[in-house]
Amino acid sequence: MKIAIPTETMVGESRVAASPDTVKAFIKKGAEVTVQAGAGRGASIPDDAFAAAGAKIEPSVGRDADIVLTVRRPSGELLSTLKRGAILMGGLEPYGDKAGLEAIAASGATAFAMELMPRITRAQSMDILSSQANLAGYKAVIDAAFHFTRAFPMMMTAAGTVPAAKVFIMGVGVAGLQAIATARRLGAIVSATDVRKATEEQVKSLGAKFVYADIADAATSGGYAKELSAEDKAKQAALVANHVKTQDVIITTALIPGRPAPVLITEEMVESMKPGSIIVDLAVERGGNCPLSKPDQIVEHKGVKIVGTVNLAGKLAGNASPLFAKNLANFLDLMITKEGALKIDDADECIKGTMIARDGALVHPMFTSK
Ligand code: NAD
């Protein structure tokens, strides 16, 4: 069983899909692991560390691999070298780019998009969205504090009192919860909102205030949110409009799977905020929760800075990579028998839920239905 770890080719992607620990674990299971030279550089994992774990280091990888692990969708060049039937596993970005998915299918690989991992208890250790969103939520608050020209905690000094910053977190999934916890640790006064009612208890347990409009619970059975009705959108917008005027920092994290991110902070709301306020839009890659945010830019609008850094987890590649790698290793474990052979159990919920392509065709119902 040959496992290949290529260097990520997407601009700005500093993570790598393996760690020395996962390499060791694969080798223990009888695999041969090849890591592309320099693949770990962005995550501060030198080639030597992979070599010490037992990996071969080569200038290019993939051609003879049975399994290729990636953080992002691989380049066309890598896809064209894959063996037919090779397993491709990673963050394959399944939403909104059918042509890209068809290119993966055309490679003949059996491809697994880890973003589609079902939200079941057993799958938690394989969930790249959670492991990465947690870091992104933390980094969003740290970045907001960096751009903010004031302090987060209250300080009473002989020269006067510095008031605590007011931080509002919109969307209380994995990223939002970590953002609440981080902002609280820094001493801010924190409030948060979501459209899933279950989040109220979580917000309160972290010591933040819950801001909730009188709307229907938008939770789905899969643990995600669905889009609000027009009436509920209006109710939520009115509540948010009132609240944001009083806030110094807003972190938006609201996503709806497979749909553009919902607009939560309109231009008018931005203009109602005090100069010097900061918005960090974690949903920028999916269209943004604020229409003014731009990918990888800091937009200044009437004194308010809107930070649209994409791939915030990737900015913490030293932590994000080992966690991502462990998610992949845990998933791959489902396909390795005790004897060290590869076996894909089509009936397994996690395998079925993430498999997007096989034998040259797209196979996931989300992408095969017209
Ligand atoms: P997500 O990244 O899809 O969305 C972020 C948050 O935005 C969600 O809480 C969502 O409800 C919220 N949101 C959507 N539209 C909104 C709007 N208009 N206004 C305000 N908020 C809005 O979510 P996530 O981080 O992936 O987590 C979703 C849920 O799934 C959480 O409860 C999480 O604990 C759960 N989860 C379960 C598992 C598992 O069991 N394996 C794994 C990961 C997450």
Structural description of this entry:
By secondary structure, this protein is α/β, with parallel strands linked by helices. Helix content is about 30%, strand content about 15%. It is built from twelve helices and 17 strands. The chain has helices at about 20-30, 45-50, 75-80, 100-105, 130-145, 175-185, 200-205, 230-245, 265-270, 315-335, 350-355, 365-370; strands spanning about 1-5, 30-35, 55-60, 65-70, 85-90, 110-115, 155, 160, 165-170, 190-195, 210, 250, 280, 300, 305, 355-360, 360. β14 (about 300) and β15 (about 305) form a beta hairpin. α5 (about 130-145) runs parallel beside α6 (about 175-185) and α5 (about 130-145) packs antiparallel against α10. It is globular. The two termini are about 35 Å apart. Nicotinamide-adenine-dinucleotide binds near residues 120, 171, 175, 176 and 256.
